[in-house]
Amino acid sequence: MRGLISLTTLQTGAHHRDMHEAGIALVRLSEVPLEAVHALLNDERSHRHLPLAAPFTPEQVAAWVRDKDAQWEEAGYGPWAVTVDGRLAGWGGFQREASGADLALVMDRADWGIGRTLLHVMLERGFAELGLDEVTVALPFSRNATRALMRFGFRPDGEVMYGGIMFRQYRLDRAAWQVTAASLLE
């Protein structure tokens, strides 16, 4: 598949071996069936944590995928589809926002257990391969993930508004990630 992350070339240790052994891959969103993306984006269980989410028509899903994929050409980074044994399990990666590269991760409820590994891999890829200097995460107030983000080196960075809704923002720079990444591998 075009866009597949070469898990064997990244040197971040067990997380990548775990992904490979579990059949987990990061591919471009345009490489997965639109029907699968449609089902994921319209999963009502996830909408509780996605305050900007609304039901998508198949045409809106196709436009959403085109917009997300276009970020790779425009910004040099963008979101990936997360697959498990070829099945769409979620999407995530970096999106260009006014505050810089914002990391998003949206998983099918059945695959929430792989989020920590994915976050580690995405951050390593962002800093080591995509050349990002810092990353933000914006979480709705329905999510209480401060401790989890702090374990990855993120620090609170105020609030930000998207679509008329307030989110808590966290920020991580390359130096803090390098320290955190080294401690996560110990």
Main beta sheet strand tally, sense and closure? 7 strands, mixed
Cross-sheet strand order for the largest sheet: 1-2-3-4-5-7-6
Order of helices and strands: HEHHHEEEHEHEEH
On the 0 to 100 scale, the average pLDDT is: 82
What structural class do you assign from the helix and strand content? alpha+beta
Low-confidence stretches: 1-15
Shape: globular
Number of helices: 7
The multimeric state of the shown protein is single chain
Count of DSSP E strands?
7
- What percent strand? 25-35%
Radius of gyration: 16 Å
Cα distance, first to last residue?
32 Å
Helix content: 25-40%
Describe the structure.
- There is one protein chain.
- The chain has about 190 residues and is an alpha+beta fold.
- Residues about 1-15 have low confidence and may be disordered.
- Helices cover about 40% and strands about 30% of the residues.
- The chain has 7 helices and 7 strands.
- Helix 1 (about 15-20) crosses helix 5 and helix 2 packs across helix 4.
Note the topology.
Layout: H1 14-21, E1 24-28, H2 34-41, H3 44-47, H4 58-75, E2 79-84, E3 87-97, E4 100-107, H5 115-129, E5 134-140, H6 146-151, E6 155-162, E7 165-173, H7 174-184
Parallel strand pairs: 4-5
Antiparallel strand pairs: 1-2, 2-3, 3-4, 5-7, 6-7
Keywords:
single chain, 186 residues, alpha+beta, 7-stranded mixed sheet, 7 helices, disordered N terminus
